[in-house]
Design a protein that fits this description.
456 residues; alpha/beta; OB fold (Dihydrolipoamide Acetyltransferase, E2P); Rossmann fold; 8 helices; 21 strands
Length: 456
């Protein structure tokens, strides 16, 4: 018979600083506690929910001495929902804490004073261009549509009060959930893999004010299409019903039925137009990404005339299109073929003819695969894992005069910068570190780093 675990008692700690991930760090002698929903300089009673030999993760259950940066959360599900980390914190303080986290990540690479202040988001609510809401049930069997509870892929908290996207998005959640409850449609069960409604994806165009809504289900349900159209009516310009039989892993549509509207939304950044389909990756905070890409373009222009620029992880082409007037030729590499096709269409729609888009393994750029031996400028915007050693070696081999690195992960960013720009005999030096707050109320951050090649 398995011996039951001994309950971990609550403890009172004094928090010191924020860490990447959104927790406040505290110490009890040499034991480290990472505390959810706390801020630096607070005395909190915490309940450990995951304990190791030298550290634990805990949630704050009572704030005995609060930080002056603490505010009342504007979401009833804060602390339970996995979406936000900072809804209990003033926005200006969020930026300060993120700067401290970024400066700590850059320790040994750059001084805190070398990192510019965070560029604040134009809006700290209703800013996301895409949200995915999942279906689930409560323990009592009540159907829910919303976001995953913190630390769980099974439990769902309601999404109709989420402040990350617009009121129209929240109303779409309410109406679709009402239809599902009224008609008795079940929710897909992540463990049992039983059929049902799986997720509702809402995309919104910042420039056009249009909305695309897609409902995903594991099989066809009588009347579902008609009920979906009637419920969304004036709320959605494009309505899609997707069938998803991939019961393991993230949702993946086998087929899509376009019930209403065009199969894409149109978005705009800095005068450039982009078409966004159901599967297209695009920056989620368009207003803030517009600033970041404008800065990247301005640096490229200011650094002189470029013969060839290389864009790695080009996606649907936003960086390549911003570089098009700063170089005679742009070569854009992207692993996923559908994104390459979308990028070509975006270039054509904008009348840009000096970009070559290629489907290639981005983490293994080899000059023998159609790339020139030398390029003048390289821009990279990799996913969270950052650059592979092969990609770093390829950049060093092509010896660009300038490298523009856009990162969503400070840990892998600093690792890659060490390979490119730090240490005795390093090829590059850091000219600029500019962080942007693309995701207010979360711990996520975006950073633009400009590297220039050392003389000699």
């Amino acid at each position: 018979m398995k011996k039951p675990k001994t309950p971990v008692p609550d403890m009172t700690v004094r928090t010191e600083k924020m860490v990447y991930g959104g927790q406040a760090l505290a110490r009890a002698d040499r034991f480290v506690v990472f505390v959810d929903d706390a801020l630096p300089g607070e005395t909190v009673r915490v309940h450990p929910y995951k304990r190791k030999r030298h550290y634990a993760f805990a949630r704050a259950v009572a704030v005995e001495e609060a930080s002056p940066d603490r505010v009342e959360p504007d979401c009833p599900w804060f602390g339970r929902c996995g979406g936000c980390s900072f809804r209990h914190c003033r926005y200006d303080a969020q930026l300060r804490y993120k700067h401290e986290i970024l400066a700590e990540a850059f320790h040994g690479v750059a001084e805190a004073a070398d990192i510019e202040p965070f560029v604040p988001a134009p809006a700290d609510c209703d800013y996301r261009g895409k949200m995915v809401f999942s279906f689930g049930t409560t323990l009592e069997g009540e159907l829910r549509l919303g976001l995953h509870r913190r630390g769980s892929y099974i439990h769902i908290v309601p999404g109709d009060s989420c402040r990350l996207q617009s009121e129209g998005s929240r109303e779409a959640v309410r109406r679709v959930l009402e239809v599902a409850k009224r008609e008795g449609y079940p929710a897909f069960h992540e463990i049992r893999k039983t059929d049902g409604l799986r997720c509702l994806t809402v995309r919104e165009s910042h420039a056009r004010g249009t909305r695309m809504v897609e409902l995903s289900a594991t099989r066809d349900y009588p009347g579902l299409a008609e009920h979906l159209l009637a419920a969304l009516d004036e709320l959605a310009d494009t309505v899609i019903l997707a069938r998803d039989t991939h019961l393991h892993g993230p949702p993946q549509a086998d087929e899509r039925i376009f019930l209403k509207g065009e199969p894409f939304l149109e978005e705009e950044m800095n005068g450039l137009r982009f078409r966004i389909g159901p599967d297209t990756f695009f920056q989620n905070n368009v207003a803030q990404a517009e600033r970041m890409f404008a800065d990247l373009r301005d640096i490229a222009r200011a650094t002189g005339s470029h013969g060839t620029a290389l864009d790695l992880f080009s996606g649907t082409g936003p960086i390549a299109l911003h570089l098009a007037d700063a170089a005679e030729r742009v070569i854009a590499l992207e692993t996923w073929e559908p994104s390459v096709e979308a990028a070509r269409a975006n270039a054509a729609a904008n009348g840009v003819g000096n970009i070559t888009f290629c489907a290639a393994d981005v983490n293994k750029p080899e000059p023998g695969d159609g790339l020139p031996e030398r390029v003048d400028l390289v821009a990279v915007d990799p996913p969270r894992p950052g650059l592979s050693p092969e990609a770093v070696a390829g950049i060093l081999r092509m010896a660009p005069k300038h490298v523009l690195y856009v990162s969503c992960n400070p840990t892998t960013l600093v690792r890659d910068l060490k390979a490119l720009a730090v240490g005795e005999g390093a090829a590059y030096k850091i000219e600029l570190i500019r962080p942007y707050d693309l995701f207010p109320h979360t711990f996520h951050m975006e950073t633009l780093v400009w590297l220039s090649r050392r003389a000699g």
